UniProtKB/TrEMBL annotation:
Protein name according to UniProt: Recombination endonuclease VII
Length: 155
């Protein structure tokens, strides 16, 4: 037996029940308009009253910081907050280059990644991550920096 069919209250098309959003207070357990029509309605409402939706979004973000952080980590680096926390714990909450603990820093430890392949490496403090980014992982340039600092160490 196949999936049930329902008629959308807006577009009047026959659609599979899975094409309708869940609404538990309805007899069918589904919304009366299909997901496509609901999306069009929501887009129109957001356009007509953007301030209302901006405020609601900001309020939700403040109430759900872990969900926001998780979404950003997935979007930016392809890792979850749980994976970030595992890395954090493996590094004892410290930058792997300078050794500063998270409690000494203003910003969270940054996810370092290889820009060529996008491979996640480890967590760095903002300063170490910035330096590494500025030298573009150029080892010979870093060696020149070391020579320079050693040369002028006693000045």
């Amino acid at each position: 037996m196949g999936e049930k069919i329902k008629i959308c209250s807006k577009c009047k098309q026959n659609k599979f029940i899975s094409d309708f959003g869940v609404q538990n207070d309805r007899k069918s357990g589904r919304r009366s308009a299909c997901k496509d029509c609901d999306a069009i309605t929501q887009k129109k409402r957001r356009k007509e009253n953007p301030d209302k939706y901006i405020k609601a979004t900001r309020r939700w973000q403040l109430q759900n910081p872990d969900k926001v952080r998780n979404a950003k980590l997935i979007r930016t680096f392809g890792i979850t907050l749980e994976q970030y926390n595992e890395m954090f714990n493996e590094q004892n909450g410290c930058c792997v280059i300078c050794g500063k603990h998270q409690s000494e820093l203003k910003l969270s430890l940054a996810v370092d990644h290889n820009h060529d392949g996008g491979n996640i490496r480890q967590l760095l403090c903002n300063h170490c991550n910035l330096i590494l980014g500025l030298v573009q992982d150029n080892i010979s340039l870093l060696e020149e920096f070391i020579k320079y600092v050693k040369k002028h160490k006693d000045i």
